[in-house]
Every structure is written in structure tokens, then in C-alpha cells.
Amino acid sequence: MIPNFKAHPWHGISAGEDAPNVVNTFIEIVPSDTIKYEVDKKSGYLKVDRPQKFSNIIPALYGFIPRTYCHEEVKKLAIREGATDVSEGDHDPLDILVLCSHNIHSGGLLMDAIPIGGFKMIDKGEADDKIVAVMVGDQVYGHMKDISELPQAEVFRLKHYFLTYKNLPYEEATCRIEEIYGAEHAKEVINASLKDYSDKFGGSL
Length: 205
Description:
Number of strands: 10
Largest sheet: 5 strands, mixed, barrel
Structural class: alpha+beta
Number of domains: 1
Oligomer: single chain
Shape: globular
Low-confidence stretches: none
Order of helices and strands: EEEEHEEEEEHEH
């Protein structure tokens, strides 16, 4: 008899056989959500992190790449690219935003995504990269290979979200985007986070 169990979405699922070219992605939040969900690191279940207090709506599917971790290697990339105030990675799996033309109603699911770029975000001295990807096979976005193929207005929309989603009207902003990068650097960030995961939790790359 096969025992019943649920694989932990962070530790129990691979980043994908063809990572970093195509990556497994665990989706936590969809654009219709007014609640920010995130995976509970102990149980692997989605939990409520916080309700969105203001008008920010996630502009695309949002989640993380399994078996990634942002620490020393991700920090080194940020410093290499010119960030002077980074002390560490953010100690979380690598965040990913997946562009998709379909209406997906809820998170807690896996999908294959192709990284096309990302944002090198620095938040309170921590490297907190946001990978931008497209869903494999999507009729509108699936053919794109680099963030430079996106309309500039779409890039600005994604950037604006990440610069404002943590801000409260009466508080000073704590994060900035150091760089917008293309597919090749996105793959470097993914590989760095896979190495950080291996160093932290063990297992082969």
C-alpha cells in the first residue's frame, strides 16, 4: 500500500530537470487575491501572511522555485553587479513572478516556467531577487525568451509593484531595485540560489 503524504513544496520537489532554463514553480498568490499567502516553512501548507491593506494587487502569478535559497551566492551576485550595501540574501526561497494570459483562480499549484529576466531588489540590506518568467505554452507570453521582449509599460508595471507592495503611506520605503536584468543573469541568480540551498540543506545540485 502506498502511504499517503504530501511532498513539501520547498524541499520535496525539484527545481526541474532542465533548471535554470525551465523551472518548476510553486504558485502561492494569483492576481485576484487580496490576501498575501505564503508557504509555511515547517508544514508546507499555504498560510495567510497578511491581508493587503492598500490598493496593491499582484500583477501576475507569484511564488517560488523549489529547492532554492537566497544567501551567500545570491549576495555575491548582487555585490558583483554593483550593490554596495548588501549584507546577505533574504534567507527565503527564490521568488518568481510568472506571466500568464489565463485566469488561474487560486494558488497552491505547480507549473513549468521559462525565466526571461528579473529585478535585483535590495530590501533592508538583503538581496531579494525577483525572477520574471513566462508560463510554458502560454499563447501570449510563452514564446518570449528575454524581458527585453516585454512592452516597456509592462516592465514598469511589474517594477512599480515590487517598489510599493510593502510600503505603508506613513513609512519610508525600505527597498529599491538595483537593476533590471535579462534571461542570462536570471539563470545565474537561479543557479546561485540552488547552490545556496545545497550549502544550507544538503543534496546535490
